[in-house]
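Entry 14. Structure prediction run on the chain below.
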Amino acid sequence: MSRVLVGVASAMAALCILVSLRYSRSVESASQVLAHAVYFTLNESTPETRQQLVDACQSYLSGHDGTVFFATGTRATDKTRDVNDTDFDVSLHIYFRDEAAHDAYQEHPRHAEFIEKMSSNWKTVRVFDAWVRTGP
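Output returned:
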């Protein structure tokens, strides 16, 4: 149940950030976007390997057509409430304007190259996809 809660909480937090920053006019006028959240647990979790994965996410996974929000970073280790899922090292959050943009991203050569170069240090990868509202 804790993993479900962290997925919902992460999606809600990212949505709040997205709306409050008014990231782009396309998001302001959209009624729904596809939120793609990925949580990586590493085989070897060190500050260096976590930063390598964050840098690789930024290099390979940002800037794809149809992306309306992109963020990646490391787990907030100071957040240790009972409801916090601490079973990951790095998270990735991408909001796509529609399903077609998400599907194109999944098939893009940069996405495949990211997986090829980085997956050897992945212990687990959890993906949460959700349709989220971006406006009233």
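The helical segments are 2-21, 25-29, 47-61, 99-107, 109-118.
Filed with the rest of this week's runs.
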